[in-house]
Design brief:
The complex is a heterotrimer of chains A (223), B (314) and C (181). With 223 residues, chain A is an alpha/beta fold. Chain A folds into 2 domains: 2-117, 3-Layer(aba) Sandwich (Rossmann fold); 133-200, no CATH class. Helices cover 28% and strands 19% of the residues of chain A. Chain A has 8 helices and 7 strands, in the order E-H-E-H-H-E-H-H-E-H-E-E-E-H-H. Chain A has helices at 9-16, 30-33, 39-55, 73-76, 80-83, 95-105, 148-151, 179-189, and strands spanning 2-6, 21-27, 61-67, 88-91, 110-112, 114-124, 127-132. In chain A, the strands form 2 sheets. In chain A, strands 3-2-4-5 form a 4-stranded parallel β-sheet, with helices on both faces. Chain A has a 3-stranded antiparallel β-sheet with strand order 1-6-7. By secondary structure, chain B is an alpha/beta fold. Chain B has one domain (8-232, 267-304): TIM Barrel. In chain B, helix 4 crosses helix 5 (136-148) and helix 9 (234-243) runs antiparallel to helix 10 (251-259). The radius of gyration of chain B is 19 Å and the shape is globular. Chain C has 4 helices and 6 strands. Chain C has helices spanning 17-38, 89-97, 118-135, 153-167; strands at 3-4, 47-54, 66-71, 74-81, 102-107, 143-147. In chain C, strand 3 (66-71) and strand 4 form a beta hairpin. In chain C, helix 1 packs across helix 4. Chain A binds chain B through residues 153-166, 168, 171-173, 178, 181, 184-185, 188, 193, 196-197, 199-203, 205, and chain B through 83-84, 88, 110-113, 115-116, 130, 132-138, 141-142, 153, 169-171, 174-176, 178-179, 182-183, 185-186, 189-190, 198, 245-246.
C-alpha cells in the first residue's frame, strides 16, 4: 500500500491554531492499512488535537469523516456536506487524497496530516517495508522477485556493493536485509547463479517521475 | 598486458613491477595548499595516488580538482568516482574534463550512501537526494565505451576518445562470499584493468579468495592490489572488524595492538607483515596503502617494505 | 470526611444487584478508613478517575457493567469490559477529553487473558497513548494499567486511588470546562 505516517504533532497543531472549525478527513484504503489515516486514526487524532489546542488556549471544533478512498471523485463528493461551515480541512490520506480534496473544495485550505513516503507491504503486524519504487521499468523478472530499486539503498542493478554487513543486513540500515544477498541466495537455490553474471545495463528512468510529471491517457477508457 | 593508456600505473604493472598506490584524502576546504602539503610528503613513494570522491558522503574538495593539483605537483592521480552524487550525464562530462586535464586513471565505485556522514562524527548531508543513476559496474562499462569506442552511454560519439586506465574495488570477504568473485569477474568483463581491495588483515581468507579469482582466470586479466590500512590502535581494529563491511581482523592482530607498548610502531610492523604476505601471493600485482589522515606514516612504511625507490618506466 | 453511597446496606437483599450495593457500601467504608489512616485532605474538587476493567479482573460476586464511588476527594467511575482489549486508543482519549483526570485500566496478567493476547495488546495501547499525551504536553501518568485478576471492588478502588495519587501533582485535567492550563 501507499505508506504514510503522521507529521509531528507540533506541526499539525501549528497549522490548525488559526482555525475555528476543521474537518479531519480519513481514508479507508492504503493509509488505513498502515494505521495512519483510517477511521481509527481520525478518532485518535481528533481528540488529541482538540486537547492540545485547548491547552494552548484555543477552542477548536474538529469534525471527522472517513471515506473509502480520497483518490476517487465519487467518494470525495461524500465529504461535501461536511465541508460546509469548516474553515480548513486536514486530510490524513496520502498526497493524492490531499490534492483531490484541495482541488474539489477550493478555496478551503487543505493541510496534509501525514507524510507519504513509500510503497510498502505489511510484513507482519506493526512492520511495514518498502517494496516498490514505481520506477516504471520493472526488473523483478531478472532479480528473482526481489526489487533492487526499492530495497537496495543504492538501487544497484549489479549488486551487491561492498557494504553488506556480516549478518547480511544493509550497511545503510541494519533493520533491512541486503536485498542483493537475498537475490544471490535465491538464484543459487534455483541453480541460476550464472544469470547474475550478466551485466545489467543502465536503467531507463524516463517512465518514472524522472521523465517528468506523469499524465497517462487511455483513449479506450475515456467517455 | 598491452598498453591501453600509457599511465604510469599501467606502465609499471605492464613492466612486471610490484605496483604501489597510496590514498590521498582531499581537504574539507578549498585550499590547494592542503593538497600540495600531502603531495610533498608522498612524492616518490607510490606509482599512483588515489584521490577520494567525497568519501563517506562528506563534502571535500572534488576528486577531479584535487587530482589535477596532484598532477601539477608531479604525482600521478587515480581519480576516484562514485555514483552517489552524479548522474550519467555529469559523470561522463567530468570524465571528459578529467581527461582534458591530463588525468588517466579512474577508480569506479558505487559510493557510500549519504547517511554515512563520516561514521557519525560529522553532520554531513543525510537529507540530500541521492543519485545512483548507474552503478559502479555500469560506470566501468561507460568509461570503457568512452575509451575504446569514443562513444557515450546514450549512443552519441565523442571525439577524440578519452583514454582511461580503469579501476574497480573488490571486497572479497563481504557476504555473500561465494558471489564476490563472480562479481569481480563482472567488473573485469565490463572493462576493469586494475582492482583495489577493501583492507586486508586476514591473509589466510584473503589468499583463498585470490585463489578463487585465479581459478577463474581473473588475476591475468586485471591487476589486483590488496588494500592495506596501517593500524593505529586496537580500538580502531575492533571498530573496523565490527563495523566496516568486508573487513575481517583476526584476534591475534587486535591482541598485538592491545599489548603493544608503542601502538604506532606495532601498527607499522603489522602493516609491513601484511605487505610481505600479500606480495608472496600468486596473482597479486601490487599493494594499495591507506593511512586515513595520517599520510605521513606511509613513506617510512613503504621504504621499510623494500619498495623504494619506485621504478621509472618509459 | 465526606462520602456518598449509592444505597444503605440495611435495605438491600443479599442476592443479585443487592450484592453490588452491599459491596459498594463496604468500599465506601474501606475508603473512609483509608482516609482516616492516610490523613488525606479534601480537595476543592474531586480527582476523577475512570476505571476500565476486564470482566475477569473482578471477582464473581460483584459483577456489574458500571458502578461509581466517591470518597475523600476521589470520584471513581468503573466500567466493565468483556476484555481489556476492547479498549481502543480513541476511547481512552475521549474519556480524557471529557475532563476525566485519569484512566486506570485493569487487565488480566499475561498468561491469564482468556483471549490469549488481549491484555498484552491493551498494554501496548496504553504505552502508545502515554506517548501521545506526552507529545501534546499532558502528563502520561493520566493513563495507567494494572495487571490483576479477580479483584474485589475495594481492590479496584485502591488501584483508582493509586492512579489519582500519581496524577495529583499534575493538577486537574486542562480539559475541565472553564479551566485554563
Amino acid at each position: 500500500m501507499i505508506f504514510a505516517e503522521w507529521k509531528p504533532l507540533d506541526e499539525l497543531i501549528d497549522k490548525l491554531e488559526p482555525h475555528k472549525k476543521v474537518l479531519l478527513a480519513g481514508c479507508a484504503t492504503c493509509v488505513a492499512e498502515c494505521a495512519a489515516g483510517g477511521e481509527k486514526e481520525t478518532e485518535t487524532l481528533a481528540p488529541l488535537l482538540r486537547m492540545a489546542l485547548k491547552k494552548k488556549g484555543h477552542s477548536i471544533e474538529i469534525v471527522t469523516a472517513t471515506i473509502e478512498r480520497q483518490c476517487e471523485w465519487e467518494f470525495v463528493e461524500e465529504l461535501a456536506e461536511k465541508v460546509a461551515g469548516v474553515d480548513a480541512i486536514m486530510s490524513i490520506a496520502c498526497g493524492i487524497g490531499v490534492q483531490a480534496l484541495a482541488e474539489r473544495f477550493d478555496p478551503v485550505p487543505v493541510y496534509p496530516g501525514v507524510n507519504t513516503s513509500a510503497l510498502t507491504i505489511r510484513e507482519e503486524a506493526g512492520i511495514w517495508a518498502a517494496r516498490c519504487a514505481a520506477c516504471g521499468d520493472c526488473v523483478l523478472g531478472e532479480t528473482f522477485g526481489y526489487c533492487p530499486i526499492a530495497r537496495c539503498a543504492k538501487s544497484l542493478l549489479n549488486g551487491p556493493c561492498g557494504g553488506t554487513r556480516k549478518n547480511g543486513k544493509c550497511e545503510v540500515n541494519e533493520d533491512v536485509d541486503c536485498v542483493w544477498s537475498l537475490i544471490v541466495e535465491r538464484a543459487e537455490r534455483r541453480g541460476r547463479l550464472e544469470s547474475l553474471s550478466i551485466l545489467r545495463k543502465p536503467k531507463d528512468w524516463s517512465n518514472s517521475r524522472h521523465g517528468g510529471p506523469k499524465r497517462v491517457i487511455r483513449e479506450d477508457l475515456r467517455q | 598486458m598491452k598498453m591501453l593508456v600509457g599511465s604510469n600505473l599501467e606502465r609499471v604493472l605492464a613492466a612486471g613491477h610490484f605496483a604501489v598506490t597510496a590514498e590521498v584524502g582531499p581537504p574539507r576546504g578549498p585550499d590547494p595548499g592542503d593538497v600540495k602539503k600531502k603531495a610533498r610528503i608522498l612524492r616518490g613513494v607510490a606509482d599512483a595516488y588515489n584521490v577520494t570522491d567525497n568519501q563517506t558522503a562528506v563534502v571535500r574538495m572534488s576528486s577531479i580538482a584535487a587530482s589535477k593539483i596532484l598532477l601539477q605537483e608531479g604525482l600521478e592521480p587515480v581519480m576516484q568516482m562514485v555514483c552517489r552524487d552524479r548522474n550519467r550525464i555529469a559523470l561522463q562530462s567530468d570524465l571528459l574534463g578529467a581527461s582534458a586535464l591530463g588525468l588517466r586513471n579512474v577508480l569506479c565505485l558505487s559510493g557510500d550512501h549519504q547517511s554515512a556522514g563520516a561514521g557519525g562524527k560529522l553532520k554531513g548531508h543525510p537529507g540530500a537526494k541521492n543519485v545512483y543513476d548507474i552503478d559502479s559496474i555500469q560506470l566501468i562499462a561507460v568509461v570503457k565505451g568512452l575509451r575504446d569506442q569514443a562513444m557515450q552511454e546514450g549512443g552519441d560519439s565523442i571525439s577524440p576518445a578519452a583514454p582511461f586506465f580503469i579501476g574497480a574495488a573488490w571486497t572479497p570477504l563481504g557476504p555473500p562470499e561465494k558471489f564476490r568473485t563472480i562479481r569481480l569477474a563482472k567488473k573485469i568483463n565490463a572493462g576493469a584493468n586494475f582492482i583495489q581491495t577493501q583492507a586486508v588483515y586476514d591473509i589466510k581468507r584473503f589468499a583463498e579468495a585470490v585463489r578463487r579469482a585465479e581459478d577463474m582466470g581473473l588475476t591475468d586479466r586485471a591487476a589486483i592490489l590488496p588494500g592495506i590500512i596501517v593500524p593505529r590502535s586496537a580500538g580502531m581494529l575492533r571498530y573496523m572488524n565490527a563495523s566496516v563491511p568486508g573487513v575481517e581482523v583476526p584476534d591475534e592482530i587486535i591482541q598485538r595492538m592491545k599489548d603493544a607498548s608503542d601502538p604506532q610502531e606495532e601498527g607499522i610492523k603489522i602493516a609491513l607483515e601484511l605487505i610481505v604476505a600479500v606480495k608472496s601471493l600468486s596473482g597479486i600485482k601490487g599493494v594499495h596503502l591507506q593511512a586515513i589522515e595520517a599520510e605521513g606514516l606511509l613513506p617510512d612504511l613503504i621504504k621499510a617494505a623494500g619498495l623504494l625507490p619506485r621504478p621509472h618506466v618509459y | 470526611m465526606q462520602y456518598s453511597v449509592l444505597t444503605s446496606s440495611n435495605d438491600v437483599p443479599d442476592t443479585g444487584p443487592g450484592i453490588l450495593a452491599r459491596k459498594t457500601v463496604e468500599c465506601a467504608l474501606i475508603l473512609g478508613q483509608m482516609c482516616m489512616v492516610d490523613g488525606i485532605k479534601e480537595l476543592n474538587q474531586d480527582t476523577e478517575v475512570v476505571v476500565l476493567y476486564c470482566q475477569h479482573g473482578l471477582c464473581d460476586e460483584a459483577k456489574a457493567s458500571a458502578w461509581s464511588e466517591q470518597a475523600c476527594g476521589l470520584s471513581v467511575r468503573a466500567i466493565m469490559m468483556p476484555c481489556s482489549s476492547k479498549i481502543e486508543v480513541p476511547y481512552i482519549l475521549r474519556i480524557l477529553e471529557s475532563g476525566t483526570d485519569a484512566v486506570e485500566i485493569v487487565a488480566c496478567p499475561e498468561k491469564s487473558c482468556k483471549f490469549l493476547v488481549g491484555s498484552l495488546r491493551t498494554e501496548k495501547r496504553v504505552e502508545y497513548v502515554r506517548g501521545l499525551l506526552e507529545k501534546i504536553g499532558y502528563a502520561p501518568e493520566r493513563v495507567g494499567i494494572s495487571r490483576r485478576l479477580a479483584q474485589s471492588p475495594q481492590e479496584l478502588i485502591v488501584l483508582a486511588k493509586a492512579r489519582a495519587d500519581a496524577v495529583r501533582p499534575f493538577g486537574i485535567n486542562p480539559m475541565k470546562k472553564g479551566e485554563q492550563q
